[in-house]
Every structure is written in C-alpha cells, then in structure tokens.
Amino acid sequence: MAQLVKLQDYISRYQRDLKRYPTQFVRLKKIQWERMKSEWETGVDVLQWEHVEETDSGDKTGWIKGLFRRKKEKEVHWEETEITSESDEEEEDSSFNFEPNLVYKPQNIEDLKRMYMDQLFHFQLKWASSTLLEKSHVDPKYLRDSLLRQLTQKLPDNYLLLYYPILQLKNAPLELDVLLLTPTEALCIKVIEEENMAAFIGSGDRFWVKKVGTSETKFLNPTIGLNRMETILTQIFKRDGIEMPIRKTIVSRNGYIDFPGSTFGLQVVDKRTYTEWFAQLKNSNSPMKHMQLKAAQAILTMVQTTSYHRVGWEVDVEDEPS
Predict the structure, then answer these.
(1) How many CB atoms lie within 10 A of CB 195?
(2) Residues of the chain predicted below pLDDT 50
C-alpha cells in the first residue's frame, strides 16, 4: 500500500518526521492485519457503531461516531487530553495508531481484506491531513477518489505518493500533478479523465483535441504541465544533490490517447494499456532507498501547508464514511 506522504496543501505527519513514519506505517499495517485476522478467525463479536446524522452545515455528512461498544465487554469512550506543547505531542503520539475493527461479519478472507484496506485508507487520509497539534480540512471528494484509492491500496509499501502537492515557489503557490517516488525513480503522472470512452488527440501544439462522439473540444496540452513539473523537480534534486531519474507519464484509465509524436522520456498510458502498466508498477520488491527518502524530504521542505491549530485533543470522528 503506497504511503500518502502529501495531499494537496494539507498538514502531513510525514512532514514532521519522514524517517520515522514510513517504517511505523509498515509496522502498523502488518501488526493490525494480523490482529484483525485473528479476531475474525476466533469469532470476536462485531463492534456496534453509532451513526452521526448530518448537521445543518453539512460538516458531519456520512461520518461514523467514534464511540463504540463490543458485545459482552464494557463500553469504551475516547478520553480528551489537553495538548500544550510539542513534547506532549510526542508523548501522546500513540493515540494516532491504526486500530481497525470488524464493523460487520466478513464472509471470507477477501471480504475481510477489503474491510481492512478501506479502514487503512481512511487512516492514511488522517495521517495525510493532521498531527496532534494541527489539522487540515479534508475535501470529501478524496474519500470517493478512485485513483487515489487505487494508488494507495494496490501499490507497494515502499512507494511514496504526493497527490497534487502544492509547492511554494518564489512566494507563489504552484499545484503539481501526481508524483510517485519509487525506490529507483520519480514518476510524474498527468491524469486526463473526463467522459468515458473519450478520445484525446495529441500533438506538439499548445492545445490537444478531445473527441466524444461527434463533439470536439480543445484542452491544454498535458505535456506542458509535465515538463514544468520535471523542471521543478530537476532544480530541487540538483540543489540537494539528489540523483534520481525523473519519468513522465500521461494516464487515462477510461479514454484513448492518440499521440503519434510522443516525445522521448514520455510514456502514454490509456484504457488499452493501463492494466499492464499498473501491473508493472506494482511489481517492485526493492526496499526503500536513502535517495528516495531524501527526494521526498527535499520536496516536503517546499510544500505549502494550510491547517489550523488544535486548542486541545479532539477525537477524529471522521474515520469512516457511512
């Protein structure tokens, strides 16, 4: 499961300690899967969850209340703890551990895995949008983002994902596209997905053409953004002495791309080749590399962050959708 290091301009756990959290994530993932699997195999009673209705402002839409009861056991309540300093945050950091639960009775091991991975995905969003002292408001669209789910749930643990990160360059924010740091390369991904079965006609011009049925519309050449992203990463890597190849890819999972003049160093992946491309991307047994972490750290030093300060310990009730 690729690690979501940065999401937009949200505060991220990885920004605080990049050396610590990648290994902690892998350890938590393994330990908690074994615990959850053991509970399922030994017939531990399913937790009862209480739904929180939507407020007038819509803030709680679809969330599950963080208060539960295990059958035949005592009721468990979250406790509030006042956070007053950075040292307190470190001491209470265990509160952010991943603790998945059997929210219904899985019929088989695959069903159990899906339940587990769904909860792990929400945990990743939590780490990618909060610390114990700060928190960012998460757009609900990311809970429904199928590409984000696929990248995080299907790729190896040794991949670091920056999903549309916003960098602060010369006092001006700039949103990049999807950046995937593997142990051996930095992969810049430009996603063009709109209507199903759309055909994208590429050229060296400033605009490409999108065809849907008999209609045609122009849109900005996606290689422009990819080239700009490559240039920025090249400058950052050069500044920090990072030796890592940068590869550019245009991806459309539900459309067709016709780009006969495809340039060197650019890979085009569409509906016809996506499955094969993604399978190759998944096939990585290499452990995390020092240069990979160094590259991630260099980028994280330049990101823009929008968050608010917690006045005290607040339990996230936004861990699960309804």
Answers:
(1) 13
(2) 45-92, 95, 313-322
Tens digit of each residue's pLDDT (9 = 90 or more) over 121-149: 999 999 999 988 899 999 999 999 999 99
Q: How far apart are CA 115 and CA 295, in angstroms?
A: 33
Q: What's the pLDDT tens digit per position in 151-205?
A: 999 999 999 999 999 999 887 899 999 999 999 999 999 999 978 889 999 998 9
**Alpha-carbon distance 310 to 129, whole Å?**
13
Residue 215 contacts residue 208 (beta carbons within 8 Å) = no
Q: How many helices (H) and strands (E) does the chain have?
A: 8, 17
The C-alpha atoms of residue 315 and residue 68 are separated, in whole angstroms, by 13
Contact by Cβ (8 Å): 314, 133: no
Name which of 313, 26, 28 is nearest 158 in CA terms: 26
Task: Write out the E strands in the chain.
Answer: 3-7, 47-51, 64-70, 75-76, 134-135, 160-163, 166-169, 172-175, 178-181, 186-191, 199-201, 207-212, 215-220, 246-251, 256-258, 266-269, 308-309
